[in-house]
Design brief:
Elements (H helix, E strand, L loop, with lengths): L11 E3 L6 E3 L13 H16 L11 H27 L3 H19 L11
Antiparallel strand pairs: 1-2
Amino acid sequence: MARRKPGERDDRRRCDWCGREFDVAPGPGRPRRFCRDGCRQQAYLARKLASSYGLGDDDVIVSRDALEDLQSRLYCLQAALEDIERDLAKSAEPADVAEALSWLRENAEPLASAWIEPRTADA
């Protein structure tokens, strides 16, 4: 998503269900929270199912595989940060900083591309 200039209106937002970006139509009324009716319906069903199990609005059920994948990506980023801190403590030459930044980016991109969807009754 492009950066906004100060004072510029945000005409895009992310869907509260799937995370997809969508255009926000100006005008009266509440701003849309979902990119399409299907996402709105899935969010409703998830809230209804969560309520029947005594889960709160902020509780989410995800698969163990998705959680482990996310934790693995976080660990790689943490290890890269430790490596960079150690390496830059020895030398802060421009070539070393560029190499450290490249290493950090390589380890941050998998985490940045991660997206975990909540499970629904049929998942």
